[in-house]
Amino acid sequence: MRSSDGVKAQNQDKPFNPHPGSGDSDQLLAAIVESSDDAILSKDLNGTITSWNKGAERLFGYSANEAINQPVHMLIPPDRYGEEAEILERVRQGDRLDHYETVRKRKDGSLVEVALTVSPIRDAQGRIIGASKVARDISDRKSAERARRLLSAIVESSDDAIASKDLNGILTSWNAGAERLLGYKASEVIGKHVTLLIPDDRLHEEAEIMARIGRGERLEHFHTMRRRKDGSLVDVSLTVSPIKDESGKVIGASKILRDITENVRMQEKLERLVAERTAQLSDMVAELEAFSYSVAHDMRAPLRAMTSYASILQEDYTAQLPPAAQDFVRRIGNASQRLDALITDVLNYSKISRSEMELGNVDIANTLREILESYPDLLKHASHITIAFPLPGVIANRAALTQCFSNLLTNAIKFVPAGRTPQVRVSAERNGEWVRIWVADNGIGISEEGRKRIFTMFQRLNPSSEFEGTGIGLTIVRKAVQRMGGNLGVESEVGVGSRFWIELKAAS
Ligand code: ADP
Question: Is there an atom of ligand 1 within 6 Å of 443 CB?
């Protein structure tokens, strides 16, 4: 490297010396100048460069050989020539210029921001013969300053309140947005403790926030409240970030507060509206349920009369009726039985929906036994129903649970293809605090699409088939399970069978 850069090598051998003379102190001075980080150069009163140190070479890009004896103008952007003339004039008068911030031009044409210190150089007789210049590169500092100014302009013009505090909670800055939002001027709060702004019932939050900041974490859009100068409270969304020093140590926190009064007001309005509508709807549902209950209930008496008269006709007058009339009477009997089943289901559904639902420990095995004994249709098939003991106790309402099992078992027996003997299995499994009870059959199965519909009222998947029904049974099961705080579902394979389950809390 050295051999290819003759000039440099020469400079190193011959240190900078603005006053050629003799003596150790001159040499020492020259060494100091040469090793300085700053650019140090001198010029005569005509503006010709007379010396040039390493720092100048680094800053401006010219070697000593390239610079010495050249006009100092080569370092000055043309629009600043006037400035140079002024500086020279002041030097002539013996003035010194301290930290004069300006711009200079490098060898490659680029500009650099510098701070100049210019002092006159005198000869032995005290006459001014030139000037020494120390130029320091301040472009880093300048751009940092510009960035800072830009940032503070942004902060100042922000609509949000922006403030900062140290780790002791002492406020250290406060923008115009903060002044607008909270009513305090910067001078009224800087140096004060941040608790000034925090309502008493929120003070505990501040300790938590500061603990998180201490760990270098950031807190975003935290909904809280702040107290204004006039004592009123304001809903704010708070974002807090740690402020770190150069070594990465957290030394404080910056906070951005956004006024969300309007959002909160809208939210509350919406919630009120939803609550009102929900109340209206449940009133309507209750009215409808009461209506359907009384209609069903009132239909029962005339229906019973029709059923009884039809069966009297059938039993006591069959002989007197021609075959066609006999058939009509039989049809009337069937139709009224179907209507009766429908009414029973509607009433059962109303009961499950409206009655008090007291919950207690219920023994499933006992409940099943009672159901099998009291439902003739099921009793007939008792031998096809297996129960896998033991069955854990559950928290339920006895009547509601009876409704569930009677419906599930009736369906399990009913939806079996002609010619297949029904096989139903009831089992249970404990799952933490829950008990899941399965009712599995070997019936026709339910398609995926069907499984989505069957728990809705009047949904029957095969309405025109041999399977009679009202389409209310599973709706009753769903309502009952829901009112007992449980869950239910079904798994099924078409043609193979279905497994319905209900899940209730285990008995205590
Ligand atoms: P219903 O049995 O009176 O028709 P449900 O509400 O009990 O009414 O059942 C609704 C529909 O779900 C039935 O019509 C039937 O299509 C289907 N379903 C219910 N249980 C079974 C089952 N175990 N196997 C096959 N299909 C079933």
Answer: yes
Q: Model confidence over 69-81: pLDDT tens digits?
A: 999 999 999 999 9
Atom of ligand 1 lying closest to residue 459 CA: 10
Q: What ligand 1 atom has the least distance to the C-alpha of 412?
A: 23
Name the nearest CA neighbour of 435 among 376, 371, 378, 390: 390
pLDDT in tens, 312-328: 988 899 889 999 999 99
> Which atom of ligand 1 approaches the CA of 445 most closely?
25
pLDDT value of residue 253: 94
Last residue of a domain, one of 259, 281, 315: 259
**Whether residue 415 has its Cβ less than 6 Å from ligand 1:** yes
Outline where 112-242 has alpha helix (H).
Answer: 139-157, 176-182, 186-189, 203-214
CATH of the domain at 248: 3.30.450.20
Residues 45 and 109 in one domain: yes
Over the Cα atoms of the chain, what is R_g?
48
Structural domain harbouring 194: 158-259
Ligand 1 pocket test: pick from 415, 456, 478 the residue with the most ligand atoms within 8 Å of its Cβ: 415
Phi, psi of 108 (to 5 degrees): -80, 10
When divided into structural domains, the chain yields a total of 4
Task: Find the mean pLDDT for residues 229-244.
Answer: 95
Helix (H) or strand (E) holding 34: helix 24-35
Q: Is the pTM of this model over 0.70?
A: no
Same domain for 365 and 328:
no
Read off the pLDDT of residues 187-201 as tens digits, 9 standing for 90 and up: 999 999 999 999 999
Kindly state whether residues 458 and 410 are assigned to the same domain.
Answer: yes
Q: Has residue 297 got a pLDDT over 90?
A: no
